[in-house]
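pls ignore typos typing on phone
NAP + seq
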Amino acid sequence: MKMLITGGTGQLGRAFSELTNIADVQLFSFSSRELNVTDTQQIRTIFNQIRPDAVIHAGAFTAVDAAESQADAAFKVNVTGTRNIAAACLHYSSKLIYISTDYVFDGKSSHPYTEFDQPNPLNIYGRSKLEGEKIAARICPRLYIVRTSWLYGLGHNFIHTILKLAKEREFLTIVNDQIGSPTNSLDLAQGIMTLVHTWDYGTYHMSNKGQCTWHEFAREIVRLTGQSVDIRPISTAELALPAARPAYSVLRNYMLELAGGDYFRSWQEGLQDYIKK
Ligand SMILES: NC(=O)c1ccc[n+]([C@@H]2O[C@H](COP(=O)([O-])OP(=O)(O)OC[C@H]3O[C@@H](n4cnc5c(N)ncnc54)[C@H](OP(=O)(O)O)[C@@H]3O)[C@@H](O)[C@H]2O)c1
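k done
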């Protein structure tokens, strides 16, 4: 299987090249400079060369706060860019895996969100990703939408930030009123790889199991790495960030459950593995 990856330099994009059990897959991974999803000429040239069987569309405008003041840029990449990739997939009969987010939900639920719950994004980033889902679904028949949450992997992420600050500061203040499921990008890449070998098109939630606040996540990172920094809880309101965030965005991998079993491990196990490496 020839598999093209957009956003190949991102946390998820990089995870695919770490997978070891993909002998039947030839990966073609691109940075935004090599394959800018807003550049239809570049897309045509690359799709014509590779003729991919499947496309993992992980490239996105992911700066949640910046999106509030750069809505056009976020929509251009996350909606128009997704349209461009979906159209190329239609033309070359490629399967499309569009990576989406827990931020499509408003966080007002009291139970983990399934694929059948109604999205209602609170911020521009979430809106643009949801519109990306819709435009992909209108164009590409062989589509899997994969929503994930609180992703970490190679590159800049929350874990690195906590470990760096833990060395520099006496205490850290971390938000304790947002609840989600931290997800190891390698686990997600493995889940996507399994899915793409099926014909089971549709929308999927793929996150590590369980839930925590950012504060609990930070405490576990510090505990596992044997640091001793004091981590104090604060509220989202105290941070006063430009973008609103869902207070509760735990995803239930319900479509996987219906298909025979949710094979994702707990967020604690995913984190432990990441830290060991
Ligand atoms: N991080 C999370 O917590 C999280 C949670 C839920 C869902 N997601 C979704 O998961 C996917 C992967 O996220 P991530 O954390 O791996 O992202 P990331 O580390 O922030 O990387 C973003 C990637 O998108 C690429 N990109 C940006 N603009 C592009 C453009 N115009 N054309 C092509 N590529 C472009 C970047 O390329 P360059 O580096 O070359 O600029 C980079 O490779 C995204 O779709 C994101 O919306 C992420």
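The chain has a mean pLDDT of 96. The first strand starts at residue 2 and ends at 6. more later
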